[in-house]
Design goal:
Blueprint lengths: L20 H8 L3 E5 L2 E4 L1 H20 L3 E2 L5 E3 H7 L1 H4 L5 E4 L5 E4 L4 H11 L8 E10 L14 E11 L2 H21 L5 E5 L8 E8 L5 E5 L6 E3 L19 E4 L6 H8 L7 E8 L2 E8 L6 H8 L4 E3 L2 H8 L16 E5 L8 E4 L5 E6 L9 E3 L18 E15 L1 H6 L2 E3 L5 E3 L1 E8 H11 L1 E2 L2 E2 L10 E5 L5 H16 L4 E4 L5 H11 L3 E5 L1 H6 L1 E6 L4 E6 L3 H10 L1
Helix pairs in contact: 1-11, 2-6, 2-11
The chain binds one RNA strand through strand 14 and helix 13.
Amino acid sequence: MRWSNFFLFTSKEEPSDAVSPSHRLLLRAGFISQVSSGIYEILPAGFKVLKKVEKVIREEMERIGCQELLLTVLNPKELWEETGRWEAYGKELFKLKDRNGREFCLGPTHEEEITDLFRKFVRSYRSLPLYLYQVQVKFRDEKRPRFGLIRAREFIMKDAYSFDRDEGEALKSYKTFKEAYERIFKRLGLETYCVEASVGQIGGKFSNEFIAPTPFGEAHFVLCKSCGYTANSEIVPLKRGELEGEEEKPLKLVETPNTRTIKELSQFLGVKEEKILKALLYIHKGEPYLILIRGDREVDEKKVEAFFGDEDFHLASEEEVREILNTEKGFVGIFNLPKNVKVVWDNSTYGKKNLVVALNKVGYHYINVNPGRDFNYGQFADLCKVEEGDPCPKCGKPLQLKRGLELGHIFLLGDRYSKAMGALISDERGKEVPVYMGCYGIGVSRILSALVEQNYDERGIRWNYKVNPFEVLIICLNVRDEELLKSSLRIYQRLKEEGFDVLFDDRDERAGFKFKDADLVGIPLRVVLGKKYKEKKLLEVQDRYRDRSYEVKEENLVKFLRDVLKS
RNA sequence: CGGGGUGUAGCUCAGGUGGUAGAGCGUCGGCUUUGGGAGCCGAAGGUCGGGGGUUCGAGUCCCCCCACCCCGACCA
C-alpha cells in the first residue's frame, strides 16, 4: 500500500476529548474516529490491526475444535423473556421496535440465542461436547462510556459457548478454553492476569477474568505476591478482626457540631477514623437497612449487591434519612433506631473498642462506646471494599491492588440457560437432562486499546511484530529525487512479493514530517532511504518496537526483516 | 443516576463592559526546501451546538433543550 493513497490521516494536535493514552493515540494516529459517545468507527489502519487480532483468536478457537458461526444483532424480546433477562439486564439493554410494534434488543451477549439454536438442533449426548463461537458486534448502553474503545457502547466481541453432558465434562471444556485464552493473550503480546471473578449479569457457577494491567482500566483486582492468589477486588473476602485488648473507658455524650464527614469528626474529636463507627442507610426494595462499617473503610456496593441478591438498592438520600431516622447525614448511628430498620455489621467493625458512635441526634456523638457493655452485635456480613495491604484470603500476606482492562471473561454457566429455555439432551439411559454450558468472551476491539496502553511512548504507538497495521514501513525521504524514488519502489515491490505486509510512504513531504508520522503510527519496522542510501547504498532499518537502528545491505534486507519479525 | 466542565473553520483555540467573527495548524495553488512536524506569497473554508426571549442590534445577556468530556458510582 502506498501512503499517498492510503486512508490514514494523522493529527499533530492532541484531541481535546481524549485522556487515556490509547484513546489519544488511536485518534491522533488515525486508527479510530468517534461518531457518538462510546461509538467509534474503526478506520483502515485500525481495522488491519483488528483483523490480525481476530486471526490469532480464530486460530486458537479452531485449534480446540470450536466452530465459527454468525448469530444475529437483533434479538426478539421473547427469547430474552424466557430467561428473565429482558427485565433483569436493565437499562444497559438497547431496545427497539419494528414497524409492527414487535420488540427487539441489540444483542449485548448471546446466551439466549445460542441456547435457542442448540435446542433447535441438538438432541443427544452423542453430539457433545460442542463448541461454537462468533466474532460479532455487541451493544450495551453503558452508564458511562469512556476512554475510547476501552468502554464503548458498540464494540466487537468474540463469544464462544460450550455444551457438555454434565458438570465434569463442562469443567474439562472450561479448562480447554482457559488454556486457549492463555495462548491467545501470549501470542498477542499482552501481559494479562487470569483472576477469579464474579459471575454478575451472565450468571453461572464461577468465572475467571483475563485482565491486562494498565492505569486506565475499569477493573480493579488484587494480587498476592506471596501465594499467587489473584481475584477481582469485588469478590475478595475480608474476615472479622480480633477483639482489641484496649481498656474500656467510660461512655460519654459529647457535642459535635458541624461534623458531617468522618474526616471532620475525626479531626474534631482527635480520634482515628478507624475508631468511628460509620453508619450508612441503604434502602433495599423499600426496606431500610443500616450498614455499619469502620470509619476508615468504604462499602463495596458489589458486595452489597451480593448480600441483597439483586441490584434494587440505593444509599438513602438526605430526605430519606430525615424521614426514616429523623436525623441528618453525619449523625446516623445505632442508638435510638426505629424498629423497622435492620442492622448489618460489616466484618471490619468487629472487636473495636472505645468507638465513636452517632445516636441519630444532630450535633452529638457518644464516645468510648464498647461492645457488650453499650451495645450488642447483630448480623455480620462482608461488605467492605478491599484495599492495598489487606490480608490475602489464601495466605494472609498483604495484597497488592491493581487496575486493569478486562479483556476476557470465561464462565462455567451450568444449566442456568438450558433449564430456563428447555435445552435438553438425552443421556445414555434416554433420560432428558439440561445441557451443561460454559461461555467465553473476549473484547476484541478493546484489545486494540490494551495493546496501545501497554506499548507506547511520548512519540506514539509501538505495535509489536505480530499485531500491527503493517509489518514494515518504507520511507523515501525525497520523492522528488527520481533515483531515490525508483530504488524505494523497487524495494517496496520486492518486499510485497516476499509476502511482507508493507506500507510505502511515497508522500511528497519533508523528512522530519515523515519520521514524526512514522513514530506516531508505530509500524514496528521501517526501512529508510535517504542520504545514506545515496552515498553508501546502505538501507537504514529502524526498529520502532525495540527502539533500535541497523544498517543493512539491500541484498540482505529480506532475510534481516524476516528474522526480526520472527524474534 | 448524581456532580463538574466544554460546545466558535477539518483540528487546537482566542474573541473586556452587546455593534455584524479571528489566529495557529491542516487543506488547495505557487515559490523555496529535503534526515526529525521548516519558510514565504495567495486562496478556499463558519447555521458561532439547537430553539426561544431581551434589544435598533446577540458569539457575547436571560430561559429551555441537546451533544460531548471528566469525577463519583453517592461514604454520613
